User: Which sequence fits this backbone?
């Protein structure tokens, strides 16, 4: 399965939920926001949302800004 | 009224809002923000760096339970981009309060007011409390208020320029016409600029670079805190009339 995350292509074997992806990337779901194919997936749905081949994922977080 | 500072139904004590950008590290960010006394801090939203996810995050140093995060749409050049960013910010933090900014020009960083008005309408419609960065045009400021923005935030001067208040007449005009808080956002360079904004009657000041780019950011943060309070008090105290010279000491009884 080929998925684009923050502009980078990643390849995964087998099924993967957004929650599992977060664990794999060592990210805290409560501190980021995720968009899949331009649609925001709320934190409460990360574990029931499966990644599909060709998905475009954006993972963002708060950083310093003015 | 003097001490009540209410934004979107929430009361705050500090009228100084500060950014969290441009500091040398998170420790300096934390120290400067503590010294500023600010309760609301602006933050930006950016892609997570996938090659380096183990690092500490802003939230580890600036506790979102202690400070009110005000996510911005900095770097967005269209209404669509800004709305998308602020929806993501809401998903990341769960907050409704946002700072809308739509930039029109890469060099001047001047706001694109057509896109700003468009984005404000969408966000207000979706239930966001929108604090909006805008030009110092009194007519457009009024339009943003009519759309339902929670606070109007005209620039003092271009973002990051530190040039101070370029058009005090317009800022005053916006303040006098507004029924929502007016904050000067962007262009403040030093403490006296913040004091002048408050003397003009602004409800608050939002700044970042004036503190982060000072030689001693923590000391400048303290100075800004004092300046905002001093300016607010001066506004209410009512300044003396400007007039010809008149001595402060009695002319009678001088030794002869």
Assistant:
């Amino acid at each position: 399965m080929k998925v684009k995350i923050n502009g980078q292509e990643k390849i995964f074997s087998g099924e993967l939920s957004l929650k599992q992806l977060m664990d794999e990337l060592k990210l805290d779901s409560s501190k980021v926001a995720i968009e899949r194919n331009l649609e925001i997936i709320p934190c409460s749905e990360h574990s029931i949302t499966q990644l599909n081949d060709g998905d475009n994922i954006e993972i963002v977080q708060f950083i310093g800004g003015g | 009224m003097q001490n009540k500072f209410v934004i979107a139904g929430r009361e705050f004590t500090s009228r100084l809002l500060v950014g969290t950008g441009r500091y040398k590290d998170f420790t300096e960010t934390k120290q400067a923000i503590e010294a500023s006394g600010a309760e609301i801090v602006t933050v930006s939203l950016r892609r997570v760096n996938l090659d380096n996810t183990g690092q500490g995050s802003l939230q580890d140093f600036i506790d979102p339970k202690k400070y009110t995060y005000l996510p911005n749409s900095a770097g967005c050049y269209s209404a669509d981009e800004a709305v998308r960013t602020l929806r993501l910010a809401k998903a990341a933090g769960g907050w409704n309060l946002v700072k809308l900014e739509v930039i029109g020009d890469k060099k001047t960083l001047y706001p694109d007011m057509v896109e700003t008005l468009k984005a404000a309408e969408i966000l207000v419609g979706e239930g966001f409390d929108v604090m909006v960065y805008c030009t110092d045009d009194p007519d457009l400021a009024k339009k943003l208020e009519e759309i339902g923005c929670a606070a109007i935030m005209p620039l003092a001067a271009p973002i990051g320029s530190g040039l101070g208040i370029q058009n005090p007449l317009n800022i005053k005009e916006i303040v006098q016409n507004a029924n929502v808080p007016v904050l000067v956002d962007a262009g403040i360079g030093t403490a006296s600029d913040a004091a002048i904004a408050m003397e003009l009657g602004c409800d608050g000041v939002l700044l970042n670079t004036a503190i982060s780019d000072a030689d001693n950011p923590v000391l400048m943060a303290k100075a800004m805190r004092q300046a905002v309070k001093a300016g607010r008090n001066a506004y209410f105290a009512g300044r003396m009339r400007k007039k010809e010279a008149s001595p402060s000491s009695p002319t009678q009884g001088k030794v002869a």
Notes: Chain A has one helix and five strands. The first helix of chain A runs from residue 18 to 24.
